[in-house]
Specification:
The chain is an alpha/beta fold. It has 2 domains: about 150 residues, Alpha-Beta Complex (Quinone Oxidoreductase, Chain A, domain 1); about 150 residues, NAD(P)-binding Rossmann-like Domain (Rossmann fold, 3-Layer(aba) Sandwich). The strands form 3 sheets. Strands 3, 4, 5, 6, 7, 14 and 15 form a 7-stranded mixed sheet that branches. Strands 10-9-8-11-12-13 form a 6-stranded parallel sheet, sandwiched between helices. Strands 1-2 form a two-stranded antiparallel ribbon. Strand 12, helix 7 and strand 13 form a beta-alpha-beta unit. It is globular and about 60 Å long. The chain starts with 12 loop residues before the first strand and ends with a strand. The model has no long low-confidence stretch (mean pLDDT about 95). NADP nicotinamide-adenine-dinucleotide phosphate binds next to helix 2, helix 3 and helix 9. The site of NADP nicotinamide-adenine-dinucleotide phosphate (NAP) has 29 residues, from helix 2, helix 3 and helix 9.
Length: about 350
């Protein structure tokens, strides 16, 4: 076994985190319940994955709310939808052998019985700590790399603004922008994260958006304006930053974490005149549209990690008890890096 792999047990029953009621807005611990069930049988073509790290993602809010989204909401009473990294412990699929590590749609539970359609990436060689495949080498890193390169298209010397600057996606974008030869500035939610942005992730400047006027903070960090705005929050920060975009700027709309509820759609200033006058390109991004490019992005991220040009922080809780409140914790900004739960 590789030194990158933690020890894990193989319990005889399946602990699961079920969605028990439909939240409006941010899911709280009270919307979930823990239970334990017998193991499902493995059908033809299927395999059983023993989850080791469960992913906690802001997107899970959209997966449980009854709002227009890119996927159907998780059904009440079913296992909470989640990405996870784990190992195949039983298989009736010749292409997916026992012992193979996988990252995919395995849910908040000990075991998933699934077919190949549930795999997001195959980890044929475990070349980094297993947890990294659920973060920097998983959805978060892939999103950062693909959205930044395909929509941001930053040129050396340009100024890039990142929101959720210290988070799993944001900290990666910040480092990619620095590697691209840009001036990189970030907004984040507390002074400790501001320090991590500048001292660990190589931002030229960062600011705590809760501790000042956001327009002044952006102006102070980017007096000549912003060429690429990588936005993970939307709302008032977006409305403020768009008014400091330079002509021909690009906006990557990667997340909308600051919007408490989409139903009914919240009001804000009209931004279309800003888009027109500044000749902006404002592109929405959903990682699952880019499966054909995962391998290219993984290779680029692995090379940057191996060369030490990319660092990442993980915020790993242990045990299923941490799961029900984990999404609310993200939206309170309490995570310091990629939020994961070790259940091995
Ligand atoms: N489009 C896609 O395909 C895709 C894929 C992955 C992730 N994303 C998006 O990328 C963003 C970051 O995801 P992540 O996994 O890297 O999480 P993360 O940044 O590690 O954690 C979430 C962070 O969001 C910030 N936040 C929470 N509530 C906020 C609010 N009301 N206003 C402003 N900021 C708030 C907090 O950071 P602060 O303390 O800095 O406020 C919190 O730490 C999310 O919006 C997520 O939906 C999009």
């Amino acid at each position: 076994m590789s030194g990158f792999l933690p020890e894990y047990s193989t319990p005889a029953t399946n602990r699961r985190v079920l969605l028990t009621s439909r939240p409006e807005g941010i899911p709280q611990a009270s919307h979930f319940a823990l239970d334990e069930a017998p193991l499902d049988p493995v059908g033809d073509g299927q395999f059983r994955v023993r989850n080791v790290y469960l992913s906690v993602d802001p997107a899970q809010r959209g997966w449980v709310n009854a709002i227009a989204n890119y996927s159907d909401p998780v059904a009440i009473g079913s296992v909470m939808r989640a990405l996870a990294v784990g190992v195949v412990v039983e298989s009736r699929n010749a292409d997916v052998p026992v012992g193979l590590h996988l990252y995919g749609w395995f849910g908040w539970q000990d075991y998933a019985v699934v077919g190949p359609e549930a795999i997001m990436t195959r980890i044929d060689t475990v070349a980094a700590p297993l947890s990294a495949y659920a973060g920097m080498l998983g959805m978060n890193g892939l999103t950062a790399w693909l959205a930044f390169t395909r929509i941001g298209r930053a040129e050396p010397g340009e100024t890039v603004l990142v929101t959720t600057a210290a988070g799993a996606v944001g900290s990666t974008v910040g480092q990619l922008a620095r590697e691209a030869g840009c001036r990189v500035v970030g907004l984040t939610g507390d002074d400790g994260k501001v320090a991590r942005c500048t001292q660990r992730f190589g931002y030229d400047a960062a600011a705590n958006y809760k501790a000042g006027d956001v327009a002044d903070l952006i102006k102070g960090m980017a007096p000549d304006g912003i060429d690429v705005f990588f936005d993970n929050v939307g709302g008032p920060m977006m409305d403020t930053a768009i008014r400091q975009m330079r002509v021909n700027g690009r906006i990557v709309q990667c997340g909308t974490a600051s919007i408490a509820n989409w139903s009914p759609p919240p009001h804000g200033p009209r931004n279309e005149r800003e888009v027109l006058m500044r000749r902006l390109q404002w592109g929405g991004f959903v990682i699952f549209d880019h499966t054909a490019r995962y391998a290219q992005a993984m290779a680029a991220l692995e090379a940057l990690l191996a060369s030490g040009k990319l660092v990442h922080d993980e915020d790993i809780a242990t045990g299923f008890d941490a799961a029900p409140g984990a999404i609310a914790r993200l939206y309170a900004g309490e995570n310091e890096g990629k939020a994961l739960i070790f259940v091995g």
